[in-house]
User: Fold this.
Amino acid sequence: MAAMTPTAPDTTPETGARADDRPAAPVRRARPRPRVWRGLVLGLGGAYFLVPLIASFVFTVHTPGQGVSFAAYTELLGAEGFLSSLLLSLGLAAATIALSLLLAVPALVAVRLGAPRLRPVIEVLCTLPLVVPPIALVTGITTVLRWGPDHLSRTPLYQTFLAVQNEDFPVVLVLAYTVMALPFVYRSLDAGLRAVDVPTLVEAARNCGASRTYVMLRVILPNLRSSLAGAAFLTLALVLGEFTVASLLGFRPFAVWIVSISGAQARMSVAVSLLSLLVTWALLLVLSRAGTAPTGPRAPSRTSLRAPRRTVRKES
Assistant:
């Protein structure tokens, strides 16, 4: 009987009006943020980068009193030392990237897994080159290279000191660039390792029977793809634009070659600088795309998601 008796509507004690008749509270809409400031900031940033490039390009193609000419670009490929210096810088960059990653990745993974207390020590060692000026680094390298042949002339190491100074491919520059790139490589890899639970991944892979080499190559490195691309990104930019160390050691990579021709052929040197900037951007774009490429398995197709058809056999 209690369920069949009508209940009194909800009323307010003062006015006796129903609760449903109350006016709804006005909904405040969030004001859209002004996009004018965004466009202004982006415009100023774009002008800051594009205006010098446009001015440099106009300087290379326009000659007062003669008009427009692209001779600075057409004569570039035939310029003496252009191709050899560019290939040398690219080779040095590739070797520096490989050596720095081979040194940093196993060390940081080992510290993350087995000795977390050593992480501050590794951080100090890897970031120490930021404190040492390049001129001091070159002075130390020059002292060692002069000391070696004088004291090791009767040992097999004498040929080693000569080999690392080969002008075709100076290994000493690779070693110097690796030391200079360690802070950037460490920061990029450390950020990637913090975002990944490395001990859990390694333990799970080892419980499944995977070897240590398999764990490193197929489990850890794919999860560090973006960090590896970032480290390679920064190292490539450092090697292609480095001038002080190579110049003081007497070698002639691409940056030194650009400065060497700037006095006699100013327009060509500016044209080479623009082209080197475009080449660097292209290479960095490739590395960034490689770092953001999907590594997981492909999504199953629609045909694979369909339920298999059952075949009914007729009984004879």
